[in-house]
Amino acid sequence: MTGLAGLEAELHRDLARLLLPPANWTAPPPGPDGAPLLDVLVIGAGMYGLAAAAALTFKGLRNLRVIDRAPAGREGPWVTTARMRTLRSPKHLPGIALGLPALTFRAWYEARHGAAAWVALTKIGNADWQDYLRFVRDALALPVENAVELRALVPSAGFVTARLAGPAGERVVHARRVVFAPGRDGTGGPVIPPGIDPVLWPDRAAHTGEAIDLTRLRGKQVAVIGAGASAWDAVATVLEAGAAGCDMYVRRAVLPQVNKGRGSANPGFFEGWGGLPAAEKWRLLAYQYDVQSPPPHESIHRALACAGFRIHLGTPVLAATPAGTGLRLRLPQAEASADFLILGTGYAVDLAGVPPLAALAPRIATWADMYTPPPAWARPALGGYPWLGEDFALVDKPGLATPGLGRIHLFAHAAFASLGAIASDIPGAAAGAERLAHRLAAAFFAEDIGAIHARLEAFAEPELEGTPFFDRAAFG
């Protein structure tokens, strides 16, 4: 058997050899509706949601469900709002393999395209990555339900109530733990710089995280704010689609030169960050915030190959307002005009801006609540990162005690300050999922110890039957 069918057969042989996944071992109590509680509800079936679900099942936590608001095959940004041609990560990263060679991206790619194609591959195409994630989901039979949106999370003693909406209408699910994995854009929404008039939306402005009708930009003048990877990808995309010209406005006079994130993508950072003192975590976070990451050189070359591209370094946009059918940009020394504006300004970390968590946000501890850096390291923009437990759990602000708040585990980029880059990018996905699964397994064991102890006492498999020393009376 060859191809993907052969790879899946190999994967299942490996799983059988490793006795994975083990049987479910928890003892969920009844919920408010009288039915046993779901152990884990995973919100999001993108890369991190799937990694979490897989790692949890490998720990015998199989009483779980995964939901995603997107249709099947369109979870995450890979074939929707991501406008790069390839991933920015090196092709040799294992993906969400969780220690299984047959779950690596390389194994999937070679099974689908052949070994020679792997050798020729430079970087991973977006659609290939989406298809690989779907392979992981299907091969492990992860219980994913698409087109279901989370409306609110309501924690209480012993469980969390999730209010959901889908094709069948609204409903509630009660789970002992919730893993909230909404993706990079799901913990605060897009950053909109001061001075950008919101009235420009949607006809004259968009963030790179939004859908953009490229047909409307043919023959138009486009302005892009920002110089991160998504900004460069937006420049190339609109020009390739027929825009007459595109001006990129960059606050910095010189682009960042070194990808420090790649320099820190190793097991030391993945395993060690969470155990560091708060001051050391903050220094690392502030340093990476200061230096930023450069756009991939492929994205720059792609934009430079397009006619009509102009870049304005050291030129922040102070304001953008409507003007006629287009817009006017106020710059430090002049004004400029455009027909359409694209913001490549990244995403905020602000849980008050996350609708399902908005009601809880005033109670959730942030780094600003829990740690005051020395003046030289003060970075107010970073204070909104949530202060999380070592299991990614939300924590109360000082002086508050919200029942069940710690049963919500934030498995997303906003975990960076507390736990490092193990919940945001491809290199840390498996390490983050393993950490989450280890700690949730331990938490469930402690919660269910009464039932588990009773099961242990009731376990009565006669080991010595058939030997001279078998004592039938010992079994009642």
Q: What topology does this entry show?
A:
Layout: H1 3-17, E1 38-43, H2 47-58, E2 64-67, H3 105-113, H4 115-120, H5 126-139, E3 144-145, E4 149-156, E5 159-166, E6 169-180, E7 205-207, E8 221-225, H6 229-240, E9 245-249, H7 260-263, H8 267-272, H9 278-291, H10 297-304, E10 309-312, E11 319-323, E12 326-330, E13 335-338, E14 340-343, H11 367-370, E15 408-410, H12 416-419, H13 429-447, H14 449-458
Parallel strand pairs: 1-2, 1-6, 2-3, 6-15, 7-14, 8-9, 8-14, 9-10
Antiparallel strand pairs: 4-5, 5-6, 11-12, 12-13
Helix pairs in contact: 1-3, 2-13, 6-10
What does this structure look like?
This protein is α/β, with parallel strands linked by helices and 476 residues long. It folds into 2 domains: 3-187 and 349-451, FAD/NAD(P)-binding domain (3-Layer(bba) Sandwich), CATH 3.50.50.60; 198-257 and 294-343, 3-Layer(bba) Sandwich (FAD/NAD(P)-binding domain), CATH 3.50.50.60. The protein is built from 14 helices and 15 strands. The protein has helices at residues 3-17, 47-58, 105-113, 115-120, 126-139, 229-240, 260-263, 267-272, 278-291, 297-304, 367-370, 416-419, 429-447, 449-458, and strands spanning 38-43, 64-67, 144-145, 149-156, 159-166, 169-180, 205-207, 221-225, 245-249, 309-312, 319-323, 326-330, 335-338, 340-343, 408-410. The protein starts with a helix and ends in an 18-residue tail after the last helix.
